[in-house]
Design goal:
Helices cover 42% and strands 15% of the residues. The chain has 280 residues and is an alpha+beta fold. α2 (55-70) crosses α6 and α6 packs across α10. The longest helix is centred in the C-terminal third of the chain and has 19 residues, at 250-268.
């Protein structure tokens, strides 16, 4: 990645030691996520979380946020930070007063069976009863969009900790802004993220029939997959370059182009229409 003179890059430092108890309290970070406090920096009076001291992971975050916005998902908007000599992804702390935040497992997971459906339920809301009890019907569409984004990127890290739901004062449930796109376009197919996390891309990679089952139950997912499929990697990287005022190097462009072709090739092999119910 080439940083130009016009690039928006924010020098940061570890500043958690400078946060007062009142400042930490004002961020409304749920107790289960207090580990975030270790990586918070203050920029122009606004608090940001930073992660992934890796240029490749940072680019993944930029791509994920871009795709989520293209499909109208609420997502964090990453800025580029510089920590010593490493580029990191910066995102504003999004927790707000008046909301309760929970991991996806609290409301989306089917805890009754240890199976394919149980694993995927964290990402496709198969536990319908739990959602209806908290006015959560509208969340399904966003979860399907997120599943399509994760499939587009070959995302392998969408576990309970990086998919949150939030509930307002009247009990309406929605997805919290999406984050953690870093473990995408993985180079090492034997990575722990491929072996240990259960999510749509891992399942599809192991057995493409799983995507057919998913689309048969949620036909709209296929529309979202096709929409994202129509967005080329050249368009994605070009738009990010223009937005962030950076330039990607030729080997980076080649890497992401090849990884996207690999992922798209996997999805293209699936004769998806034969899994649809009659009439869909």
């Amino acid at each position: 990645m080439i940083i130009t003179e016009k690039s928006k890059v924010y020098p940061i430092s570890f500043s958690q030691s400078f946060l007062t108890e009142d400042e930490i309290s004002s961020l409304y970070i749920p107790k289960r996520y207090t580990n975030l406090i270790a990586n918070i920096t203050r920029l122009n009076g606004t608090f940001y979380h930073f992660k992934f001291p890796s240029e490749r992971f940072m680019i993944n975050e930029l791509i994920g946020s871009y795709l989520a916005k293209r499909i109208n998902l609420d997502t964090v908007d990453y800025e580029i930070g510089l920590l010593k000599e490493s580029y990191v992804a910066l995102s504003k702390i999004f927790y707000e007063e008046g909301y309760q935040y929970f991991s996806s497992k609290s409301f989306l997971a089917n805890k009754e069976r240890s199976s394919y459906i149980s694993g995927v339920s964290k990402f496709t809301g198969l536990k319908i009863g739990n959602l209806k009890s908290v006015r959560g019907e509208s969340i399904f569409d966003d979860i399907l969009k997120l599943t399509a984004v994760d499939l587009k990127m070959g995302q392998c890290d969408r576990h309970d900790g990086n998919l949150q739901v939030r509930i307002d004062k009247v009990g309406t449930i929605s997805l919290a802004p999406i984050y953690d796109y870093g473990c995408s376009y993985m180079e090492d197919r034997n990575s722990v993220h491929y072996r240990d996390y259960v999510n749509p891309f891992v399942l599809v990679r192991r057995n493409p029939f799983h995507l057919g089952r998913l689309v048969r139950r949620f036909p709209k997912l296929w529309d979202y997959i096709q929409f994202l499929h129509s967005i080329s990697m050249e368009e994605i990287l070009g738009d990010i370059e223009s937005q962030k005022l950076i330039n990607f190097e030729d080997d980076e462009i080649e890497y992401y182009r090849n990884k996207q072709l690999e992922i798209d090739g996997l999805l293209d092999k699936i004769k998806i229409k034969r899994f649809f119910r009659k009439g869909n």
